[in-house]
Amino acid sequence: MILSNEFASVEVLLDDSANGPRLMIKDLRTQKSIYFNPLELKNLAARQHQDLAMFMDPSYRTMAQQRKSQLE
């Protein structure tokens, strides 16, 4: 399934190639993917939108990349 709006386009698939089912989400612009198992999805569903707000902030990625390069 492809979900799109003016900000993003992602593909969402059920992946059965691992030890159990997982959800795969792929950013169609960058081709980067992430997989979530049922436990991770359960915990994500328990969050509030405000808990995820930092991930929507464009500066978050820049700060995360800077921290990663400092550790290397």
Structure description:
- The chain is an alpha+beta fold and 72 residues long.
- The chain has one domain (2-71).
- Helix content is 36%, strand content 28%.
- It has a four-stranded antiparallel beta sheet with strand order 1-2-3-4.
- A hairpin with a 6-residue loop joins β2 and β3 (22-27).
- The chain is globular.
Radius of gyration: 14 Å
Oligomer: single chain
Give a quick account of the main beta sheet: strands, pairing sense, barrel closure. 4 strands, antiparallel
Return residue spans where pLDDT drops below 50 for at least 5 consecutive residues. Answer: none
Number of helices: 3
Helix content: 25-40%
Reading side by side through the largest sheet, how are the strands ordered? Answer: 1-2-3-4
Mean pLDDT: 88
Tell me the series of helices and strands, N- to C-terminal.
EEEEHHH
Report the principal-axis shape: globular
Total of domains: 1
